[in-house]
Fold each of these.
Amino acid sequence: MENDIFKALADPSRRTLLDLLHASNGRTLNDLCAPLDMSRFGVMKHLNILEEAGLITTRKAGREKLHYLNAVPIRQIYERWVSKYAEPWVIGLTSLQNELERETNMDNKPRNVNRIAIKAKPEQVWQALTDPAKTSKFWFNCAIRSTWEIESPFELWDGEEKKAEGIILDIDPPSKLVMSWRFISFPGTESDTPSRITWEIGSHAELHGVTLVTVVHDEYEQSARTAKILENGLPIVLSGMKTLLETGEMLAGD
């Protein structure tokens, strides 16, 4: 998989496409064609390579196909090849920022999408997500506690104080979990309204024993600071979940 990522990044046109999504996420093919001096087919070919490498994800919004930068593989490359040689503060340089204030005429458009493939069954992923003993091993030493029923509350707890809270909006084990999200103890989030996180879990269509986990964070127009924290944090959470389920170990530094 790393070879696919490095090959995808080797082409300057594909790097340009990633830069365009970095500047303004969730764009259509037409949006991405405009700045590039190539045919529509050429852009589609490059986007397909990026998607196969996991560097972008796509979602339907009505008749449109929207393209999103996927920070998780880049985060994993950082952990594998960069972090061992760098000071901890360098982590901030690898954060991929969304354009939070960009106007759009598409209703209910997801804004931040991350995806990862994990060598585990969907049931194992679901247990890792909902079992406090497991969650605490990859969610910044915090456990998510809930009765896991629709409209039941949950909290993100570090053993001393509550870090976040919300409501279970929809639940379909082991395939889907939708939760509202509000930070409690992070500076700058006091006036943020609850946003929404959706977990989509399903078996890979082609790889036996592999589960695709997609996390969508949206409805955060009035929660800019929350969006910033989750944009930086969710790729680390997903990488930690993958490491735990595939090796039984925690990410270095957790």
Amino acid sequence: MRILLTGATGFIGRHLVASLQRGGHTVRAALREEIPVAPGVERAVVGDIGGSPDWRPALAGVDAVIHAAGIAHAGPDVPPERYHRVNHAATLHLAHAARGRVERFVFLSSIRAQTGPSSPAVQRETDDPYPTDDYGRSKLAAERGLAEIDDLFAVSLRPVLVYGPGVRGNMGALIGLARLPIPLPFGALRARRSLVAVETVAEAVAHLLTTRDAAGKPPAGPFIVADRVPVNVGEIIAALRAGQGRRPGLLSVPVPLLRAGLSPLGRAALLERLDSPLVVEGLRLAQSGFTPSVSSREGLRRLGALLARRRTDGEQNRE
């Protein structure tokens, strides 16, 4: 297939490019401007996706679209109008341009289209969605808009917190902590969270490009994607450090003491994020025949080993 990919230079997009090329597909990257891309990738400069670009040249000869571009985080620094323009309106603008032209349209949504940053109950696609911020609401609005477009086989993928080489944000900060040569006071944090390896996200996208339901039609609606078993913060740290050949190095400091110590530093909110549950169950992907190829513990261990090798190689190159 020839696939138009937006967000090809982002964290998930770079892994999608590599995965799709390994699968024998031709990737055409939709770019804001002329910038270097991976070897073998076609370029299509479309400008700002939030500016209603003309998608027709980029879509010429394309079999499928993977829309991974958008504002990838929730935060008070992003005005609601920008979420709407980039995550919602721009998605539907591209989808309408692709209508009747492509075999499949895969939208990279988010678990935040379904729930807030934490949930006391296991989340499934069959649950009613209740996003709690403008980021999640913009993703859900895009999903619902796609479902209303005739002559477009669109599917939405809802990843949980993604980890992998190059990740930033909260997961990147946690990986940075795990690399420190000191004990960490997170052994008492027990809240479990579902994570997903970026490789698994890429595999799920490739699966949704070709899978069909029992009636022989492309599947519709949202699909949650996550590793098989949720983990807590201590298990994340332990797995990352195991990949580096290190012991877990975790101290079981009571949560009230942690909170008292972090509050004067303005990091109490970080503690709340680390110790809040969000467990999901991707029923629809499983029913379609997809199984994640790696567990969180194994994926994090591999990531820790990769980062350790890169650090060692960097040190040797400097010598």
Amino acid sequence: MSFSNSLIHWYLQNKRDLPWRNTTDAYTIWLSEIILQQTRVAQGLPYFESFISAFPTVFDLAKASEEQVLKLWQGLGYYSRARNLHATAKFVVDELNGEFPNSYNELIKLKGVGDYTASAIASFSANENVAVLDGNVYRVLSRYFNVHNNISVSSTKKVFQELAKEVLPEKVTPIYNQAIMEFGALQCVPKSPNCSVCVLNDSCAALQYKTVDILPIKSKKTKVTNRYFNYIVFEDLEEKTIVNQRTEKGIWQNLYEFPVFESKTILEEKEIIKLINQKYSEIQSISILPSFDVIHKLSHQTLHIQFIKVQVSTKFENAISISDLRRLPFPIVIHNFIERYFS
């Protein structure tokens, strides 16, 4: 049995029942693909269900506020995906009369849609004969054909694109594309795959040459930056607090947070108290909240976060109530603090 036929046969016996696989609607498939970028299916599925329930059509998503979209996205990370999602919905409604494109050449023009996403949507919604190439496909192809090119190098993508096209069957493109991705997600997993029960074990080159554990080759290392955030949780005479929106580019753009000062290292209590007294007036008390300290890891940054409660003997003009606070979109680390602290 050929490579592609073996994968399809395996897929029909082992595939997961996922909602976006039961439709050819380009909007629904696009929504799932954006949510699943850099996200595991188990984590992404509840978000997909929330989004498709709140925004069943591209028109619903386009007319939503960005705040609504970010609130639903809260906790999924890589928030530029949510902003691009919203911008694309508006573009489709305003410029394409609400007709979501389903061809690769049109899809690739959309904001937040790259080669893989355009290929996937075109294949699954319109049966277009294009090969998908995501992390799972890289892994399956590199192992099966024993390809040692470094996938962190941009020139390697062309090597795998050609290989993916070479093994792509014409008449069953959508099911094959689903099959090879599902195979990488469930069977040919990154660490310790169970090759003894693999349907490809009699022809897998990496298994033959004992290179399964080292493939795919990915040598590029990400430099991680440490940042130290000190959040001030104000409480005024009406028991209201203050939050700000992060408008600058970078992490958490357009999400909300408490007033913050960033330091170069973890600050001691006396340093924190001194800084707050220098910057703010009419302070009644300052309380460090060590039980809420957290280390939050992002792809390129590690955030060391602490919260400080500051009570003031005045009323803030721009303060909000705790009930209003809960309606705003926050980074998940601050959302979790709010849920615990104000419970």
Amino acid sequence: MKSNPFLLLCFLLLLPLASASAQDFKWQAQLTPVPQPGYYRVLLSPQITGHLQESLADIRLVNREKQAVPYLLRVEQPVQYQTLFKEYEILRYQRRPGGMSELLIHNPEQRTLNNISLLIGNAETRKTVSLSGSDNQQDWFVLKEQDVLYAIENTQKTTEVKLLDFPLSNYRYFRLQLQDSASAPLNILKAGYYDTYSEAGKYTRIPVQTLSRTDSAKTTLLRLRFGQPVYPEQLVFHISAPHLYHRAGRVVLGKKEASARVRKKRRRQQIEQTTVPLLLSSNTPATLHLPRQRVEELVVQIDNGDSPPLRIDSLQVLQLNRYLVAEMAPDQQYSLRFGSEKLDAPDYDLMYFQDSIPRELPLVHVQSLQRLKTDIKVGKTKGSKILIWVAIAVLAAGLGLMSIKLLREMEKKK
């Protein structure tokens, strides 16, 4: 069948409209150059994350040629737990007459402990050991009469850690005796213990455009406006007076920044606000963690009762640091493109190699931020809607004419 000019016209008219209706990036941010090749962390500032989906799926790292650069997304945790191996001082490790090796460990702070971890070179052997303690290296008291160190073998490294348990004690010196009558001594490299400690996650301060305060008879009201969408995750109050205080209150997170489609559906509906209980006490840090929600303002309400208002020197609004981890080169200019409501998270091979990339990497910061003009979606404008309806009308007319023509041809054949 011959091609119909009406169909061709409709196709040519609808093609650019369909491509223009795809969601473009709204924002672009240039990054500072990197000094040398390697992996870097790109710190996502509040000005960037505020324009992103909550999942941060709609961000891309691109090079000078606008090619996507694979990245990993890393997010700081409010509290991180680290485990470190802390060494004891080994005063001596020597072989005694009679086929016995003796390891003398110093515990100068007389730390209370019930185990010692030994870092030992790999060895296919079996050693009988005993442990005793002393405060003066003259009088020794038994802690463990006998234990056995079995095959010491690590398939990934040339060393292995063996844990020796014993009753809780705080001697200044510990003596480990190993029976070596049947073989050479073990290669004991270190002696120590594993200590677990907590570390607070790193935050970035969110700029506050305006902060107003109202003190009424029994209430203090603080209203913070940010001037753009942000994700506040922590409030830190700096209170200088009175010396002792205990005040309840609440934080009201402003209206959620809904997407364009949601705003259209809820044009006449008020989006619910989120209220978080607040307790300020001189006995605890004046810090409040907030649920992650995109807002443009928040209100802090403090119930003073019959007490005078608090003297609040400053109020900091913070968000947990978020990074893009990527391999970058000094001869390239990199930028971020983001702000697309329909975009899904990318699927890069790099996610399978997260453990191979160090946690601590040099930081790359945003150099400039600009709004992209390509944000205009032709399919959303009034003129483009008219064009689409015209195209549909032309298409319907073309199909109608084709149907009439086919019917006439069928009648002629009859």
